[in-house]
Amino acid sequence: MKEITSAQNTTIKETKKLLKNKYRQQSGCYMIEGEHLVEEAIKHGQRLDKLFMTKDFMVNNEVNEWLTQADEVYEVSEAAIKAISSLPTPQGIVAVLKQTSQVLELPLQAPVLLLDNVQDPGNVGTMIRTADAAGYAGVVLGKGCADFYSNKVQRALQGSHFHLPVVQADLNTLIPELRSQGVEVYATALDKQAKSYRELTPTQPFAIVMGNEGQGVSADVIKASTQTIYIPMPGQAESLNVAVAAGILMFAYPI
Amino acid sequence: MKEITSAQNTTIKETKKLLKNKYRQQSGCYMIEGEHLVEEAIKHGQRLDKLFMTKDFMVNNEVNEWLTQADEVYEVSEAAIKAISSLPTPQGIVAVLKQTSQVLELPLQAPVLLLDNVQDPGNVGTMIRTADAAGYAGVVLGKGCADFYSNKVQRALQGSHFHLPVVQADLNTLIPELRSQGVEVYATALDKQAKSYRELTPTQPFAIVMGNEGQGVSADVIKASTQTIYIPMPGQAESLNVAVAAGILMFAYPI
What we know:
The structure is a homodimer.
Chain A: E1 2-4, H1 10-16, H2 21-27, E2 29-33, H3 35-43, E3 48-54, H4 55-60, H5 64-67, E4 70-76, H6 78-84, E5 93-98, E6 112-115, H7 121-133, E7 138-141, H8 151-157, E8 166-168, H9 171-180, E9 184-188, E10 195-196, E11 206-210, H10 219-224, E12 227-230, H11 242-252
Parallel strand pairs in A: 1-4, 3-4, 6-7, 6-11, 7-8, 9-11, 9-12, 10-12
Antiparallel strand pairs in A: 2-5, 3-5
Helix pairs in contact in A: 1-6, 7-8, 7-11
Protein name (chains A, B): RNA methyltransferase
Keywords (chains A, B): Methyltransferase, Transferase
Family (chains A, B): Belongs to the class IV-like SAM-binding methyltransferase superfamily. RNA methyltransferase TrmH family.
């Protein structure tokens, strides 16, 4: 274990760059933060490139087993952890992991969630977490979605990407492929052909498409889909938050 | 219409204070921001204490009708609107409104949503918006909930409090009162007595209780409730985001 006291240390400065998308892409790495996420990563066999912990954190947690799961382990000062943390109050533990390319296995054994241009990182992370809870086979991030490896997405998804594949793909290519495999694709939309989700009995496996917070699912993706569906709202709100809508739909059809 | 060019103007400085809870309580006022929210307020007969708009906003929007709905109207500079905005990119329009005490009318005509110590402003706002979409009769914020008049809650609820009453109350007093009126109260929890929400057929009207993001619904509130319910999760995620869970439950029982 090496010791780092200064926030100006080279390793700290290099790691700090991972807060930016550009450098995450260049390096093929990303950061996770907090005891729960690091524990989830290790539990699911993820090797850690780097593990940074404060003395305080190591004294108060059982970390011995974790030390063997990381290529490099650092005991860092509060100032150093603050420099690489994306939180106002750092939790004393940060890890660097390699980005892994995950694959959606066909034929599907369960439904999948397709996201089309969902821009808010909290929404993307929350929907992946919900898909995980619902027992979905995977989540596909289409064009324009928030960067999956950003700290905000990672925070909201709470380690769910260690449980199910999260794949980046062009939905305009993927949807025809899914449909040729017999997967029905239901896109959320408010067009005239849209069917209430309550009247739909999807045949397994199927896919649900959620769209951009303001514009919804794009016209091309709707065209490629089997059917459009909507959530009837008896009240006065004009719309639902997209992550809430996704939760309602995913739990409406037990798998 | 008065003109304000400086961010140091007294009215601007006074208004800026409303970004803080303490001053909102002292003054009994709060702020809303953006065209949609101001439009919703006016549409629902809310009088505006103050209305601040940039020249640019007034040129690009139909604001004539709004001018008569505000006691004081100000044309302000970009610098001045930036000083009172809670957004990184201000939308050119901010209004100050009086806080109004809303009342939950008994007997209930529809279900209500009770929030026990829900701390995240985004979650509180999103749940009010979802309750509005679901046609609920109202939302009650119990102890420990995020400040309803904060800009973050206001942003997430998108004007839904102009559609249904949002009331602050002690749930330990309110729940027995509701039950004495024949309202069944279902609290989300993972205790042994909890029933799957899929097996529940609630009799109208009823109430659903959602709890704190980490600790769930408090023991006292659970004790006062009719029955505990839970959402079965076939996947691996340990929990659902509270606003997603609320959405699943509110849309599970059509009103």
